[in-house]
Design a protein that fits this description.
- It is a single chain.
- By secondary structure, this protein is of the alpha/beta class.
- Helix content is about 25%, strand content about 30%.
- The protein is built from 11 helices and 20 strands.
- The strands form 5 sheets. Strands 3, 7, 8, 11, 12, 19 and 20 form a 7-stranded mixed beta sheet that branches.
- The radius of gyration is 20 Å and the shape is globular.
Length: about 350
C-alpha cells in the first residue's frame, strides 16, 4: 500500500513523496490520518533546521498533532475497531527505564515521539495519509467531535499537564504570557478549572482575539500597552499563577514581576539561555516550575474536547490540503494571522 508523506530535507525544503505502508501486526492499527496540526517544533525544523542542540541530520517526516480513522486492526486489538475515529498519542515511552518504572513516563530515557529529531535515526512523524500505530496510542472520539478538533488533543494535553504542575486553579488569578496555540489553550484550561481572572499578553492583536474566545478575561498587547502590566506588578505582584508560554526574556521578567509572593510560575515555553532575575525569585519565594509534554493527560484532553468542556475550534485559524504543505508552513509561521494551522488528508 502506498501513502503520501510530508518529508523535510532541509530548511524550507518540504517535499510530498510516496512511501509504502505495511499491514498492521499484532497490537497495531492502520489509521487514515484526517488532520494534522503544525506545531512550533515543526516550524523550528522547517525554518531553522532544529532548535537548540537538536538538529535535523537526515530527511524526516514531520507531524505529531494528528487524528484520523481506523482502517484495520491487527491480532489482539480490542480497544478500537475499523471505522473508529481516533486521536493518536504521539508519545511512546519504553515502559522499562528508571523513569518509566517511577511513573514519570514523559521523562522516558528511550522515548519515541512522532516527528522528533532528538534521536538518530530520527523518529519519523505522522504527516501522511496512512500510518501504522500501536493500538494503545488510540483515543476514540465521538461522532460529535470533528477530526480537526481531535487533532488538537496533543497541544491541549501539554496544557493540561502544565496545569497539573500549577496546582489547584479554582478561584485563582492567572496570567498567561504568549497567545500562541499553547497560551490560548492554557487560558482555556484555566477557565475550565475555575480561575476567576485570566489575563493573556502577546504582541499580536489577532492571537489575543483568539485568546479572548478561549477564556481570557482580559488581553493586553504589550507592544502597544506595555504600561498596562505595571499595575499588576504593584505591591509585589497580583497573580497567583503564571503560565509563561513565550520563552521571551521580557515576558519572563513580566511573569516574575507580576506574580505575588509564593505564587507559581509554570515555564511552558522553551528556548536557549535566558536571563532570569533570581533576586526576585528568592525574595518573593516564587515557585518556578517546568513542565514537559504529558502522559495520562492525553486521554484527559480528548475527553475535554469530546465532552465540549473545552472548545478548541477557535484556535484552528487555517486548514490546507497536504499538497499545499509549503503554504501551510508559511502561514503557520505568521503570527499576525495564525494560531493553529492544520494540514488535511484524504
Amino acid at each position: 500500500m502506498q501513502t503520501r508523506v510530508c518529508r523535510l530535507y532541509d530548511k524550507h525544503d518540504i517535499r510530498i513523496e510516496a512511501d509504502s505502508v505495511a499491514e498492521p501486526s499484532a497490537s497495531q492499527v492502520l489509521v487514515a490520518i484526517g488532520a494534522g496540526g503544525i506545531c512550533g517544533s515543526d516550524l523550528h525544523y522547517f525554518h531553522d533546521g532544529g532548535f537548540g542542540p537538536i538538529r535535523v541530520k537526515e530527511p524526516i517526516i514531520l507531524g505529531h498533532e494528528i487524528a484520523g480513522t481506523v482502517l484495520a486492526v491487527g491480532e489482539g486489538v480490542t480497544n478500537v475497531n475499523p471505522g473508529d475515529r481516533v486521536a493518536l498519542n504521539p508519545s511512546r515511552p519504553c515502559g522499562a527505564c528508571k523513569y518509566c518504572d517511577a511513573g514519570m513516563f514523559n521523562h522516558c530515557l528511550n522515548m519515541r515521539f512522532y516527528g522528533s529529531a532528538m534521536r538518530f535515526p530520527h523518529e519519523q512523524g505522522a504527516f501522511r495519509d496512512r500510518i501504522i500505530a500501536e493500538a494503545v496510542q488510540c483515543e476514540p472520539v465521538g461522532e460529535g467531535t470533528s477530526i480537526a478538533e481531535a487533532a488538537c488533543a496533543e497541544p491541549l494535553a501539554v496544557c493540561v499537564h502544565a496545569a497539573s504542575r500549577a496546582g489547584d486553579l479554582a478561584g485563582k488569578r492567572v496570567l498567561v504570557t504568549g497567545a500562541g496555540p499553547i497560551g490560548a489553550l492554557c487560558a482555556a484550561v484555566a477557565r475550565q478549572r475555575g480561575a476567576t481572572e485570566i489575563v493573556v499578553t502577546d504582541l499580536q492583536d489577532a492571537t489575543l482575539a483568539i485568546a479572548a474566545r478561549m477564556g481570557a478575561t482580559r488581553t493586553v498587547n504589550v507592544l502597544r500597552e506595555g504600561d498596562a502590566m505595571d499595575a499588576y506588578a504593584a505591591d509585589k505582584g497580583h497573580f497567583d499563577v503564571v503560565f509563561e508560554c513565550s520563552a521571551a526574556a521580557p515576558a519572563v521578567r513580566t511573569a516574575i514581576a507580576c506574580v505575588r509572593p509564593r505564587g507559581v510560575i509554570v515555564q511552558v515555553g522553551v528556548t536557549g539561555d535566558t536571563p532570569v532575575p533570581l533576586n526576585l525569585i528568592v525574595s518573593k519565594e516564587i515557585a518556578l516550575t517546568g513542565t514537559h509534554r504529558f502522559h495520562a493527560e492525553f486521554g484527559e484532553a480528548v475527553r475535554l474536547i469530546d465532552s465540549g468542556a473545552i472548545d478548541v475550534k477557535p484556535i484552528i485559524t487555517g486548514t490546507y490540503p497536504l499538497e499545499n504543505a509549503l503554504a501551510a508552513f508559511e502561514a503557520a509561521g505568521d503570527r499576525s494571522r495564525s494560531v493553529k494551522v492544520q494540514l488535511s488528508f484524504t
